[in-house]
């Protein structure tokens, strides 16, 4: 079974959630057999996720049954879900029982608050190596998916567990969504080690969050930059968390000030602070900074995880060996996925990446061999750890309001430029609803016109002048 789940102690908890749900390794083995009896192999399943034991149990079992899951939020924008459904035509859904009334599908199985529903559609043709699907470019309405192959999440779980030194005694705090590539990797690396994951739906600001973490003796935490901003506001330094030994960060660049603050805190309190870096296309983590280097290499993503290779290449694709020279970050390893899908026919495609991923990130390497991200070639932002396509955001706004629009920004905030007066709040609400991000993630500005080059393409640099 996946992660040798069948070889773990059957009575050990694999997962506990903050709604009272519990899941043992033995129950996972049992559920795998149950689901194998009610649906064939190689079905396409839309898995509508919450951080609940039922969602996790279903995904792991379906994966092990050789069915292909697309992981989505149970709270996904309905218009986007409709686009994805029409584009890919899933034959089954695994979703919360509470959503049963919203669909007319036949329920064929239920378990721990989740139901398996049959849509009546015939599963599309799936490549035999295709193992699962995840969204990319945030949730901005694009049907673009990342195609994983068997071995991707397995190798990433194995190597991340090795980097962190996870043991069966770990109790990992999972408040990142399981349909988010890093959230899933944190789960997988713990299950690989036979540990217990603590699935949290409560907000970091909620007292329920911290009472659950304390009650369950959470031993490690993984967050995106926004998570660490909240911890800083909450005066995390003064909290009494004796069981918390490890903190990890990823999903975007942490400010140097916060990076240093948490690195210093870890040294002072005898804890470990890991900075990590990864992408959906590499099944989450591809690099990490050893905790003993955190205080002396502020802002670095470190070096490649075991079994991986990280390098910089110039515009001609040649490797850059010198220190402090910028180039595009390239990664090679067994966790590199197969490529993208934008239509149902793409699900039958083979491996297009062939173990090599050009990240689109500009980086440099210091004399010690540690890498630092300095910018991006591609037009997307990572807002609070979620990748959001600037081009797709423009399309959504332009089509909805029938106006000219241009989007720029950085990983702290998207700047949206429009030519129509009186629409600021409506535009902000629309893009906030579509992405699932807070309204403060976006700034809307009214301009007389969108500057363009002679070619007709938008002159984004002129917008910021």
Features of this protein?
465 residues; alpha/beta; Rossmann fold; GMP Synthetase, Chain A, domain 3; 8-stranded mixed β-sheet; 11 helices; globular
Overview of the molecule:
This protein is of the alpha/beta class. It has three domains: 2-123, Rossmann fold, CATH 3.40.50.980; 152-376, Rossmann fold (3-Layer(aba) Sandwich), CATH 3.40.50; 381-463, GMP Synthetase, Chain A, domain 3 (2-Layer Sandwich), CATH 3.30.300.30. It has eleven helices and 26 strands. A hairpin with a 2-residue loop joins strand 6 and strand 7 (114-118). The N and C termini lie far apart (56 Å).
Name the quaternary structure: single chain
CATH class category of the largest domain: Alpha Beta
Beta-strand percentage? Answer: 25-35%
Number of helices: 11
Low-confidence stretches: none
Given the helix and strand composition, which structural class is it?
A: alpha/beta
At CATH's second level, what is the architecture of the largest domain? 3-Layer(aba) Sandwich
Rg, please? 22 Å
Main pleated-sheet profile: 9 strands, mixed
What general form does the structure show? Answer: globular
Distance between the termini: 56 Å
Summarize the structure in short.
Helices cover 26% and strands 29% of the residues. The chain is an alpha/beta fold and 465 residues long.
